[in-house]
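Q: what does this look like with adenosine-5'-triphosphate bound?
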Amino acid sequence: MSNAHPVPFRAILRHVLLIAGAALMLAPFIWMISTASKPQTEIFSSELHLIPHRFALAENLREAFAKANLLRFLLNGVIVTVSIFVLQVMVALPAAYALAKLRFLGRETLFALVLFGILIPPQATAIPVFLLLHKIGLLDSYAALVLPFTISVFGIFLMRQFFKTVPDDLVDAARMDGISEFGIVWRVMLPAAIPAVTAFGIFSVVAHWNDYFWPLIVLNSEHLRTPPLAVAHFRNNEAGTSYGPLMAAAMVIIAPLVIAFLFAQRRFIEGITLTGIK
Amino acid sequence: MAQIELSAISKSFDGADVLKGIDFRIGDGEFISLVGPSGCGKSTLLRIIAGLEPQDSGEVHIDGRPVDGIRPSARNLAMVFQSYALYPHLSTFDNIAVPLRMRRLSAIERLPLLGALLPSRRAKERHIRADIEGIAEQLDITPLLRRKPGQLSGGQRQRVAVGRAMVREPRAFLFDEPLSNLDAKLRVHMRAELAELHRRLKATFVYVTHDQAEAMTMSSRIAVMMGGELIQAGTPAEIYNEPGDIRVAEFIGSPKINILPGRIRKDGGVDVLGTTLKLTCNAAAGDCRIGIRPERIELGTGPFSGTVVHLENLGAEAFVHLAVEGTGSRLIARLADVRHLPAMASLVAFGFAPDAVRLFDPAGKRIELRAEQAERIREPAHV
Ligand SMILES: Nc1ncnc2c1ncn2[C@@H]1O[C@H](COP(=O)(O)OP(=O)(O)OP(=O)(O)O)[C@@H](O)[C@H]1O
Ligand SMILES: [Mg+2]
């Protein structure tokens, strides 16, 4: 391909394809926003139109907030995802440091076990973990939502790969300066690994904010519900056939992620390209 | 400030012996260079002194006290790494402050937010600041204190790394090829600066390099390592002029020392290139090797002759590569006067004074010349 005279047809084709792909991906979201903005009568009219004749977003939102304690559910989501992420980092970083930089007997075996752990789907261990939580009486609590995810083998793996790229000299310099091994993890490795931690944070927060399966299993109480669970219940019980408020609630629930993405877009992309994970 | 004594240090990695019983004593205030080819175990030895790597056997004493099992920071040595190993997220100031903060502040005072509020920390920080500013002044890095390592040039980073080592006033400095990432010109400059620093601090320096020019120009003593053994230690002049082993002779000196095959006769006389040298030795008859430094070969006169096969004119000096007549041997002669270069492919006569000859046995060990012989050949250079 020549840079001076790009083939216009190819360029156009490329863009058409990309736009078509983007439209396909965005269609459900656009439809959600559209539905959330329509009054009940328009939603059920046989005529298909994207832009509502009468904007009813505010009404739908009001109704959604009135019918369910949406703020509480959002707060639950924040508490759970942030706790999970913080605990995951507290476990994964020292573990990854040991696997990447310390020499001890059985290190390779341990790392192989970590890799093996990545292969196990969470559904496979759901029942044993559920029973365990039942035995120690933690079902239906924040702990039930957080504890099973505190050890992220994926996080350990990701951080270990990144720590491998940190020069050994830096670790040795820290030792000469009198920093303890744990101190090295937090004062030297963590600052060097911010991009990787960010990338991992994205995966962790998105996965657990959107998780439906686990909260559905361990929760009973309404006040502990996480956002996806709340939306589901919203449909089942309160909203009945009123799709407007339902879609408005869905919008509210995905908003934090979208806003976070817009704010930290560059970091997100940096982090993801850096770790080579798509 | 510190005397370092190594006795019978051995180390192996995965069954491969990297250090094979190193005995060495480093005097107080010495500038010791550890030189040797890549992979000979210099860095490993330095890391054992620093405490970053445990030795398999043997002991390290610092100031007469064994330090085995003592943490690196508690040995109170400072190390400057080849990659400088500056903390990338900290400014120059904070980089230099790390060892001081680790030593002077308590764990609570070091806490990120809470610690800064403590009045005791503020007083200590004032002292730390004063110390760092003093160091920065000495190293000429005051304008760089607020920059991050990424915004510094190689030479500046190197200075910051030296600053971080100096600020804690260690008992000894350990350097692992600190100049090898710099360009040639800066390296020469930093060489002078480090030598000057050593004179000023009068501290013990242990300096690992595989650049013999650095070792020759800066050290008070050079220790040559090969294959995990320390084969010779001495002043730069000793190492250069009186190598005890052919590997030392070949490693030190650029261009390399000329090695010619020779024979020791029954009466102790030495034949080389079909000519008998005017010297004798006490070794048993048999093969030997003869080393002559390029600057000791005199072109124009002498019993040997060779064809000029290559000329290197460096401006101030020139190197003439000769193929010796009648043998496969090649040798290099240094010519101080570049105005009288021989022509390419011309036949040149050459010779060398008997006292320029260093004899080595087939195993590479030095063979001493006979005492009275050595005495006599020292007076008249030519016979
Ligand atoms: N952590 C390690 N694990 C296994 N082998 C090692 C380790 N560190 C060093 N070695 C080996 O020990 C030998 C000596 O290494 P060392 O780093 O001391 O060499 P060096 O003399 O400093 O070489 P250079 O001039 O290239 O820096 C090498 O063969 C190296 O491969
Ligand atoms: Mg080395």
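The longest strand of chain B covers residues 297-313. The interface with chain A takes residues 47, 50, 52, 71-74, 77-79, 81-83, 85-90, 98-99, 102-103, 164 of chain B (CB under 8 Å).
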